[in-house]
Specification:
By secondary structure, this protein is an alpha/beta fold. 41% of the residues lie in helices and 19% in strands. Strand 4, helix 4 and strand 5 form a beta-alpha-beta unit. The chain starts with a helix and ends with a helix. About 3% of the residues have low confidence.
Protein backbone atom coordinates (compact mmCIF):
# COMPACT_ATOMS: atom_id res chain seq x y z
CA UNK A 1 0.00 0.00 0.00
CA UNK A 2 1.46 3.32 -1.04
CA UNK A 3 2.12 6.15 1.42
CA UNK A 4 -0.55 8.37 -0.19
CA UNK A 5 -3.24 5.68 0.15
CA UNK A 6 -2.49 5.35 3.87
CA UNK A 7 -3.46 9.00 4.30
CA UNK A 8 -7.03 8.19 3.23
CA UNK A 9 -7.60 5.36 5.74
CA UNK A 10 -8.83 7.68 8.54
CA UNK A 11 -11.21 9.40 6.10
CA UNK A 12 -12.60 6.07 4.89
CA UNK A 13 -13.07 4.86 8.47
CA UNK A 14 -14.82 8.13 9.35
CA UNK A 15 -17.24 7.81 6.40
CA UNK A 16 -18.06 4.17 7.26
CA UNK A 17 -18.68 5.09 10.92
CA UNK A 18 -20.82 8.10 9.93
CA UNK A 19 -22.97 5.95 7.64
CA UNK A 20 -23.41 3.37 10.40
CA UNK A 21 -24.48 6.04 12.90
CA UNK A 22 -26.85 7.72 10.46
CA UNK A 23 -28.51 4.36 9.82
CA UNK A 24 -29.04 4.03 13.58
CA UNK A 25 -30.79 7.41 13.73
CA UNK A 26 -33.47 6.15 11.35
CA UNK A 27 -34.66 3.52 13.85
CA UNK A 28 -37.82 4.30 15.80
CA UNK A 29 -37.18 3.73 19.53
CA UNK A 30 -40.88 2.90 20.02
CA UNK A 31 -40.46 -0.12 17.75
CA UNK A 32 -38.60 -2.08 20.38
CA UNK A 33 -38.50 -5.73 19.44
CA UNK A 34 -40.22 -8.24 21.65
CA UNK A 35 -39.17 -11.85 21.93
CA UNK A 36 -42.79 -12.67 22.78
CA UNK A 37 -44.35 -11.78 19.43
CA UNK A 38 -46.16 -14.91 18.17
CA UNK A 39 -45.66 -16.56 21.56
CA UNK A 40 -48.25 -17.22 24.27
CA UNK A 41 -49.07 -14.64 26.89
CA UNK A 42 -46.93 -15.66 29.89
CA UNK A 43 -48.47 -17.78 32.62
CA UNK A 44 -49.31 -15.83 35.78
CA UNK A 45 -51.46 -15.93 38.90
CA UNK A 46 -51.95 -12.45 40.32
CA UNK A 47 -54.66 -10.57 42.22
CA UNK A 48 -57.42 -8.62 40.56
CA UNK A 49 -57.44 -4.93 41.49
CA UNK A 50 -59.97 -4.20 44.22
CA UNK A 51 -60.63 -7.80 45.21
CA UNK A 52 -59.00 -10.82 46.78
CA UNK A 53 -59.63 -12.88 43.65
CA UNK A 54 -56.59 -14.38 41.97
CA UNK A 55 -56.53 -14.24 38.18
CA UNK A 56 -54.53 -16.42 35.83
CA UNK A 57 -53.80 -16.49 32.12
CA UNK A 58 -56.78 -18.74 31.35
CA UNK A 59 -59.19 -16.13 32.79
CA UNK A 60 -58.14 -13.45 30.28
CA UNK A 61 -57.81 -15.30 26.99
CA UNK A 62 -60.47 -16.49 24.56
CA UNK A 63 -61.03 -13.33 22.55
CA UNK A 64 -58.92 -10.80 20.68
CA UNK A 65 -58.01 -8.16 23.26
CA UNK A 66 -55.59 -5.43 24.26
CA UNK A 67 -53.47 -5.76 27.39
CA UNK A 68 -52.51 -2.31 28.61
CA UNK A 69 -49.66 -1.87 31.11
CA UNK A 70 -50.39 1.26 33.13
CA UNK A 71 -49.71 2.98 36.46
CA UNK A 72 -50.84 6.08 38.31
CA UNK A 73 -47.24 7.36 38.45
CA UNK A 74 -47.09 7.27 34.63
CA UNK A 75 -47.78 10.69 33.07
CA UNK A 76 -48.23 9.20 29.58
CA UNK A 77 -50.82 6.77 30.95
CA UNK A 78 -52.97 9.72 31.96
CA UNK A 79 -52.68 11.06 28.40
CA UNK A 80 -53.83 7.78 26.81
CA UNK A 81 -56.55 6.93 29.36
CA UNK A 82 -59.42 8.91 27.73
CA UNK A 83 -58.76 7.16 24.41
CA UNK A 84 -58.80 3.75 26.09
CA UNK A 85 -62.22 4.69 27.50
CA UNK A 86 -63.37 5.44 23.93
CA UNK A 87 -62.07 2.10 22.65
CA UNK A 88 -63.99 0.28 25.39
CA UNK A 89 -67.16 2.14 24.40
CA UNK A 90 -66.57 0.90 20.83
CA UNK A 91 -66.50 -2.68 22.16
CA UNK A 92 -62.74 -3.30 22.17
CA UNK A 93 -61.87 -5.56 25.14
CA UNK A 94 -59.00 -4.19 27.20
CA UNK A 95 -57.34 -5.82 30.19
CA UNK A 96 -55.25 -3.68 32.48
CA UNK A 97 -51.93 -4.63 34.00
CA UNK A 98 -51.47 -2.20 36.89
CA UNK A 99 -47.68 -2.10 37.01
CA UNK A 100 -45.68 -1.47 40.20
CA UNK A 101 -48.41 0.71 41.65
CA UNK A 102 -50.37 1.16 44.89
CA UNK A 103 -53.83 -0.42 44.84
CA UNK A 104 -55.57 2.53 46.51
CA UNK A 105 -54.02 5.01 44.05
CA UNK A 106 -55.09 2.81 41.12
CA UNK A 107 -58.65 2.44 42.40
CA UNK A 108 -58.93 6.21 42.95
CA UNK A 109 -57.56 6.83 39.40
CA UNK A 110 -60.18 4.54 37.85
CA UNK A 111 -62.96 6.13 39.94
CA UNK A 112 -61.96 9.62 38.77
CA UNK A 113 -61.02 8.94 35.13
CA UNK A 114 -63.24 5.98 34.26
CA UNK A 115 -62.40 2.32 33.97
CA UNK A 116 -61.80 1.06 30.43
CA UNK A 117 -60.62 -2.36 31.65
CA UNK A 118 -62.59 -5.58 31.77
CA UNK A 119 -60.25 -6.65 34.52
CA UNK A 120 -57.18 -5.17 36.16
CA UNK A 121 -54.31 -7.45 37.02
CA UNK A 122 -52.24 -6.21 39.96
CA UNK A 123 -48.55 -6.54 39.08
CA UNK A 124 -47.20 -4.88 42.23
CA UNK A 125 -43.75 -6.45 42.06
CA UNK A 126 -43.48 -6.30 38.27
CA UNK A 127 -43.26 -10.08 37.77
CA UNK A 128 -45.72 -10.18 34.86
CA UNK A 129 -44.09 -7.07 33.42
CA UNK A 130 -40.72 -8.78 33.59
CA UNK A 131 -42.11 -11.84 31.80
CA UNK A 132 -43.62 -9.56 29.13
CA UNK A 133 -40.37 -7.64 28.72
CA UNK A 134 -41.93 -4.34 29.78
CA UNK A 135 -39.59 -1.35 29.54
CA UNK A 136 -42.04 0.98 31.26
CA UNK A 137 -45.58 2.24 31.08
CA UNK A 138 -47.61 2.56 29.01
CA UNK A 139 -47.18 -0.50 26.84
CA UNK A 140 -49.98 -2.26 25.03
CA UNK A 141 -50.03 -5.83 23.76
CA UNK A 142 -52.49 -7.10 21.16
CA UNK A 143 -53.33 -10.71 22.02
CA UNK A 144 -55.31 -13.09 19.80
CA UNK A 145 -58.16 -15.34 20.97
CA UNK A 146 -55.73 -18.21 21.57
CA UNK A 147 -53.70 -16.09 23.99
CA UNK A 148 -50.83 -15.44 21.57
CA UNK A 149 -49.18 -12.01 21.57
CA UNK A 150 -49.41 -10.57 18.06
CA UNK A 151 -48.16 -7.02 18.52
CA UNK A 152 -46.54 -4.81 21.13
CA UNK A 153 -46.82 -1.03 21.21
CA UNK A 154 -44.55 1.02 23.46
CA UNK A 155 -45.99 4.43 24.33
CA UNK A 156 -49.37 6.12 24.23
CA UNK A 157 -52.25 4.56 22.32
CA UNK A 158 -54.14 7.42 20.70
CA UNK A 159 -56.42 7.77 17.69
CA UNK A 160 -53.53 7.70 15.19
CA UNK A 161 -51.86 4.64 16.74
CA UNK A 162 -55.18 2.82 16.87
CA UNK A 163 -56.20 3.73 13.30
CA UNK A 164 -52.82 3.18 11.63
CA UNK A 165 -51.31 0.32 13.62
CA UNK A 166 -53.48 -1.53 16.11
CA UNK A 167 -56.92 -1.52 14.47
CA UNK A 168 -55.80 -3.17 11.21
CA UNK A 169 -54.15 -6.01 13.15
CA UNK A 170 -57.13 -6.23 15.52
CA UNK A 171 -59.56 -6.48 12.56
CA UNK A 172 -57.43 -9.11 10.87
CA UNK A 173 -57.39 -11.21 14.04
CA UNK A 174 -61.17 -10.87 14.42
CA UNK A 175 -61.67 -12.01 10.82
CA UNK A 176 -59.38 -15.02 11.37
CA UNK A 177 -61.56 -16.00 14.32
CA UNK A 178 -64.83 -15.70 12.37
CA UNK A 179 -66.14 -18.97 10.84
Amino acid sequence: MGPRLKLFIPLILFVVLALFLLRGLELDPREMPSALIDRPLPEFTLPSLGSDTLVNRDAVIGEVALFNVWATWCVSCRVEHPYLNQLTQQGVPIYGVNYKDEDQDALRWLQELGNPYRLNIVDADGSLGLDLGVYGAPETYLVDAGGVIRYRHVGVVDERVWRDILQPIYQELLEERAP
